[in-house]
Amino acid sequence: MDQTNRNRGIKSLVEIFIVSTRLGLTSFGGPTAHLGYFHEEYVRRRKWMDEKSYADLVALAQFLPGPASSQVGIGIGVMRAGVLGGITSFLGFTLPSVIALILFALLLTGFDIGNAGWIHGLKIVAVAVVAHAIMGMAKNLTPDLKRKAIALFALVGTLIWQTAFTQVGVILIAALIGYLLYKGHQENGEVSSQFPISKRVSAICLLLFFGLLILLPIIREATGSYWVAMFDSFYRSGSLVFGGGHVVLPLLEQEFVPTGWLSEEAFLAGYGATQAVPGPLFTFTAYLGAVMKGWQGGLIATLAVFLPAFLLILGALPFWDSLRNNPKVKGAIMGVNAAVVGILISAFYTPIWTSSILAPIDFAFAAILFSMLVYWKLPPWVIVVSGAIGGSLMTFI
Asked: Residue 293: exposed, middle, or buried by beta-carbon count in 10 A (0-12, 13-18, 19+)?
């Protein structure tokens, strides 16, 4: 029996790694697009989790600091195969872009690929994927006028006030509105998810998160070590960021450019390269670390910036079931889920739409890709390849 369970566990880990790596190789367009790819792959196609569990996981990741799409990916891996599943999912989704950006830092500095036609095509793919995800999530999460109004509030708020803390404020207000409107709402049964980690392990993860946040600056001052200083800067950046990868850029620039650790030109070149690779935007840190300290620096920087996200999602998941099934919390979560729809629509407009749909031909191509995905139900990798080829061909038109 133990051998059977072990084989089943290994099979699950291999499956998670294959699926997450394919997503890591094809998921262009930033965190909102990644949530669309995840929804398509894990909820619609593989049915590893239901719509409500996915929406609740997205709401939790939006509320926590760190890279939301990576935390959702880790959470799905944990729910599928425990802590090892979360690690496997993270590695599969993250390593392709980490390797690409470290190689870029070591070999291709100064080579401009940011304006390549195929990159523009991949941005248009993100438009189609995110539009599809928003349609599906809006249908499930905003079925009545009250929740549509909450989504509209979140959309308007995050579009007008584009600051690092607006998203957190919108989610908190939506939680309060949801609690007031739906505290007496009755749903059919409780939702339960399997989190194969104990609350004790989760408590340790939360203690470790806060402990490192407090102790690393002290150790940095006491030792004067370059490596500790580097780890501390990346860890703190990953711990204090709300709103996705774009928000971490000013924090990282403030940490490393004024101190002379790297030049403004090198920073911007790496940012351009990050837009050209799939996977989470936080892997920009792999490029920065490699510029400063070679491939070892790239790996250390990646570990440091993603470690807070990992500790937080592991720390929060086991308590999530009891919270979301609490009658007093259910209404708040309904409000947050509706707000997430508005936030996704806001992010769909800027930066995804504004950086991708620059001419009528771009909109026409986006409509074709959207139809291929939604109506012809072609797999996402076909849409990605078609987007890259189409983007290259459009440069000749």
From this structure: middle
Is 185 inside any structural domain? yes
pLDDT at 320: 76
Encoding tokens for residue 388?
A: 């890259």
294 assigned to some structural domain: no
CA nearest 170: which of 33, 332, 324, 343?
Answer: 343
pLDDT band of residue 299 (cuts 50, 70, 90) is very high
Number of compact structural domains in the chain: 1
Specify whether the CB–CB gap between 306 and 239 falls below 8 A: no
User: Which residue is listed with tokens 């392709």?
Assistant: 96
- Domain assignment present for residue 257? The answer is no
Q: Give the closest residue to 233 by CA, choosing from 270, 211, 261, 210.
A: 261
Residue 181 DSSP code: H
Closest CA to 29 of 18, 16, 40, 14: 40
Could you list the residue range(s) of the whole structural domain that residue 83 is in?
2-195+311-394
Per-residue pLDDT of 48-106, as tens digits, reads 988 888 888 887 887 787 888 899 999 999 989 888 999 999 999 999 999 988 988 88
